[in-house]
Amino acid sequence: METEPPITGRRGLRGLLSDLNPRNIEGPRLPLTVFCLVALLAGWDDTALQLALPEIKEDFGLSVTMLGVIGTITLIVTNAAGLPLGYLTDRVPKRVRLVQFGQVAANLGDVVQALAPNVGLLIVGRTLGGVSRLPNDVAQVPLLSDYYLPSSRGRVIALLRMAGGIGSLLAAPIAGYTVTVYGWRTATLMLAVMATTVACLTFLLREPRRGATDRAAAGRSEAADGTVAVERPDTEERPPPRFWEGIRVGWSIRTLRILAISSFVYSIITGLVGMVASLMAKQDLFLDPFQRSLVLEGQMVLGLLVVPFAGVLADRFMKRRPALLAAVQGVCTLGIGCLVLALGLFPSVPVYIAVNLLFSMIAGVQVPSFIILITQVLPARHRGIGLQLTAPFQLAGGVLSPALLALTDGMPLRYTLISLVPVVVVAGLIQFTAMRSVAGDVRASMEMA
Asked: Where in this protein does the record put region Disordered (predicted)?
């Protein structure tokens, strides 16, 4: 057993600024830098293709229905691949290979789309591009969890989210310009070359030892004088789990079950709220597309600004009182319910703008906190498949949302929003119940590492 210097635990403004500095994150610099660069360019090709849908429709002589079929095929395939890829992430000895070859294959899918002479190859390229990105999306959080200690994961995941948000902010104007100047095929090829260049950086990554950071954190204990005693963890890895073992272990974690059920309820209304609010902006508030786009840009900027603070908040809560991170989920959801109610009761342009800006700030805190919370309660051996367990519930909620909307068909939009508030409240109350189990589940996950 060895001793390390005391943990300072600085508070106040100076401590906050120190925590916000990425250089103060304990762990290697390269993995976070590479994953952030990959996240920065992720989706630029999709944005270009979305902007070029009219041109693609004309080039191939497609109907609107056929465009919808292509999108549906891609959606079904990508959603169905989540759990198997999560299982694969837990089984393979080299998870970085999933990221590396997945990125290369995804960019190859872009090239196939750009050069496709017919609809069949267009669908092949679209599906290849969508599915091949999934290994990176599924494996990156388990990998980052093994590169960085639990005390730093909140800031790590927040920086990853922030990089993705900045990429989304830049994607539309850059993709729109390249499509306008060079055409959709050349623009897609150009963006694929850029993404491939960044993807090559993933070949510099080394595979981290699975669960090593959890074992290291479990081996630390703070003495009365503030020094930290470190027990050298066992470096032997356990054998990889089987598919149903991963499902069973993940579902046995009470906090994860609660978050999965709440995400089912939450996903029923998230798409509906955005759609109804957008319709209200045009039909009731008479905002034109340019005015609505300014509100959207404001949402994206404010959402990005709060993400780093969400990471610092998550790390501090997990260190001192993990139950508060579960409380953040419930408070944020109830806050969304209040915003929806306000817009329904007082529909006006100022209220619409304020509600949308505040909603983006709440989402900027809630989404990374949700991922961080799941990561901390899952054992390292089951993190790949465990992180995918909420996806079927979210998908089921999204499928049921049109049925809920049908019940309000014909009602004024403001009353439709008000009718969604009870569903939001139910989701928030479910999330609050996770406060009782978070601390115990975090301890158990470290012991199982």
From this structure: 214-239
Highest mean pLDDT among 21-25, 267-271, 421-425: 421-425
Question: Rounded to an integer, what distance in angstroms lies between the CA atom of residue 157 and that of residue 142?
Answer: 11
In 3D space, the residue among 306, 59, 297 whose CA is nearest the CA of residue 173 turns out to be 297
Among 372, 157, 373, 386, which residue's Cα sits nearest to residue 255?
373
Measured torsion, CA atoms of residues 301, 306, 307, 309, in degrees rounded to the nearest 10 = 150
Paired with 229 in beta bridges are 3, 221
Structure token pair of residue 35 = 């994953």
- pTM of the predicted model as reported, rounded to 2 decimal places: 0.79
Helix (H) or strand (E) holding 387: none
Give CATH for domain 28-202: 1.20.1250.20
CA distance 273 to 251: 29
> For residue range 406-440, what is the model confidence (pLDDT) as tens digits?
777 778 888 888 988 998 899 999 999 999 999 99
For domain 243-448, give its CATH number from 1.10.530.10, 3.40.50.2300, 1.20.1250.20, 3.20.20.60: 1.20.1250.20
| Helices (H) then strands (E): counts for the chain | 20, 3
Structure tokens at 123: 């669908």
